[in-house]
Amino acid sequence: QPSGLSGPSPVWHPFTQHALAPEPPVVVRGRGAWLETAEGGRILDAISSWWVITHGHCHPRIVEAIRAQAGQLDQVIFAGHTHPAAEALARRLVHAAPEGLDHVFFSDSGSTSVEVALKMAAGFWRHSGAARTRILALEHGYHGDTIGTMSAGARGIYNEAYAPFLFEVTRLPFPEPGREGETLAALEAACREAPAALVLEPLVLGAGGMRMYPPWVLSEMAALCARNGVLLIADEVMTGFGRTGTLFACTQAGVVPDILCLSKGLTGGSLPLAATLCRREIFDAHYSADRTRTFFHSSSFTANPIACAAALANLDIWDAEDVAGRVAALGALQEERLAPFRDDRRFRHVRRLGTITALDLAVEDAGYLAGIGPRLAALFRERGLLLRPLGNTIYVLPPYCVTAEELDLVYAAIAEAADLAGA
Ligand code: PMP
After folding, report:
1. Residues in CB range of 383: below 8 A, 6 or more apart
2. Ligand 1 centroid to residue 336 C-alpha, Å
3. In the chain, where the domains are located
4. pTM of the complete model beyond 0.90
5. Structure letter (DSSP) for residue 69
6. Which of 42, 294, 395, 410 could crosslink 358 through cysteines, CB 3.0-4.6 Å?
7. Each residue's pLDDT tens digit, 378-402
8. DSSP assignment, residue 230?
9. Which of 50, 108, 111 to mutate to test the pocket of ligand 1 (most atoms within 8 A of CB)?
10. Could you tell me where the beta strands, DSSP code E, fall in 237-306?
């Protein structure tokens, strides 16, 4: 019998083969904070479908913008051509971003936004005639799954199998509470070697365990970079568009990075799109008066018009629906729900920044694939929740439309999880 049209699904899912998702539910609809399955089940999306959905699934303004653009212009080569949605979006992003980031390069995923940033940094130094090639990064950092971004990411389950293919970076210790000085000292020492750039996730390291560090550490790191001519690449792929309480996390530290990477929430999570913003000098370095050099990164779908229209609708929603106010209210709500866990000894560490909370169970962290993680995932699945533990860390990162009652369901399951873990 010819294969493909019947029998087991040929789809190769990320992570399918392990216990976090043995039999993936078939999701047919999304509305607000909820997903619905083919069997009529409902799943509360407590992690915004991999941290992308901001205003809720299928927000009417975004759906309408996608419909309108799809009927007008679906796709056009963006090399040597442009279109109104990209032009308008670039202007809006420059206006919204920290002052001085005045050029925008579009691509199509968080990984490519950071890959592009690394290439911009490399190109900047090469064209400037400086021998700066080394990248600095934070311990536990995650920046994507391409070879370049895996190199910048901390070695761990996501990338250790590919170690022979990755380039070396200098890794700074994560600024643990009370040990921030070690990070700053390591950065200062690394700066003496004239590195090209420091790439980091500002204030919250997502895939590395929702680890948080305070704004003053970020501003000290930025100051050290500025003093030593090291480019600062802020990967706001996860933190951007309100997650940490402000549109961008950098602004909480008063930091203007040299390069800013955006994706995920850029379209409200509706379509794949990424933007890498940079300062004028970085853009200028890539072009010479005789036009013999340029920046080579040509994703087919760069600045896809439909995705750009969705991103414009996302920014319209920010203005029209007081999303900043909603984000602040959600932060307060999350704090309220988290409060009872703050002195619960079954949790080793409990933290929040903006709309994101994270709770480390007081059990051994056996990593992503073993230990308590898969059992917790099964429990959450049974409770109709989309929550994916990172080892012994449970985090809640909901769309901004989530209600107090919906959060009650989430934290009730987290209390059950602590019992299950026997922490
Ligand atoms: N950077 C950060 C901080 C991320 O959290 C992610 C995705 N989790 C990426 C980059 C990669 O984004 P994508 O999965 O869209 O390639």
Report:
1. 409, 412, 413, 416
2. 29
3. 27-55+322-421, 63-320
4. yes
5. H
6. 395
7. 899 999 999 988 889 999 999 999 9
8. P
9. 111
10. 259-262, 274-279
Query: Would the CB of 240 count as within 6 Å of ligand 1?
Result: no
Burial 117-150 (b: 16+ CB within 10 A, else e): bbbbbbbbbbbeeeebebbbbbbbbbbbeeebbb
Tens digits of per-residue pLDDT, 78-104? Answer: 999 999 999 999 999 999 999 999 999
CATH node for 63-320: 3.40.640.10
Fold: same for 27-55+322-421 and 63-320: no
169-182 burial, b at 16+ Cβ within 10 Å, e below that, comes to: bebbbbbeeeebee
Q: Could you tell me which of 393, 357, 398, 385 has the C-alpha nearest to residue 48? A: 398
Nearest CA to ligand 1 atom 12: 110
ipTM over cut 0.90: yes
Calculate what percentage of the chain has a pLDDT beyond 90: 85
Q: What is the second-level CATH architecture of the domain 27-55+322-421?
A: Alpha-Beta Complex (3.90)
Residue 201 Cβ < 6 Å to ligand 1: yes
Element of type H or E holding 107: strand 101-107
